[in-house]
Amino acid sequence: MEEPPSLTWWTLDSLQHGHTHDEVLWYANWRADYEDAQQTGVVRVPPGVILAGDCEPRWLTRIRSWFGR
């Protein structure tokens, strides 16, 4: 999941250009979904990494084995 823009950026953009009610709700939902994903432990894979099915990248498996996770 892509990280949403910071609240500071969103506020400045709102002051300069304005946002519709739908855009504000969309942004709030995006932030909430992103924070939920962070708390539930969803693994963020860097762009360009291709996963095959349910497999995870080899480097992530090694890191997990080093830290016992």
Overview of the structural elements:
This protein has one domain. The chain has 69 residues and is mainly alpha-helical. The two termini are 22 Å apart. It has three helices and no strands.
Task: Please give a handful of descriptors for the protein shown.
about 70 residues; about 60% helix
Structural domain count: 1
Tell me the fraction of residues in β-strands, as a range.
under 5%
Largest sheet: none
Q: Give helix % range.
A: 55-70%
Order of helices and strands: HHH
Number of strands: 0
Low-confidence parts:
none
End-to-end Cα distance, whole Å, is 22 Å
Indicate the radius of gyration in whole angstroms. Answer: 17 Å
Envelope shape: elongated
Alpha-beta content class: mainly alpha
Q: What integer is the average pLDDT?
A: 78
Number of helices: 3
Summarize the helices and strands and which ones pair or pack.
Elements (H helix, E strand, L loop, with lengths): L6 H11 L3 H19 L18 H10 L2
Summarize the structure.
The protein is mostly helical and 69 residues long. The chain has helices spanning 7-17, 21-39, 58-67.
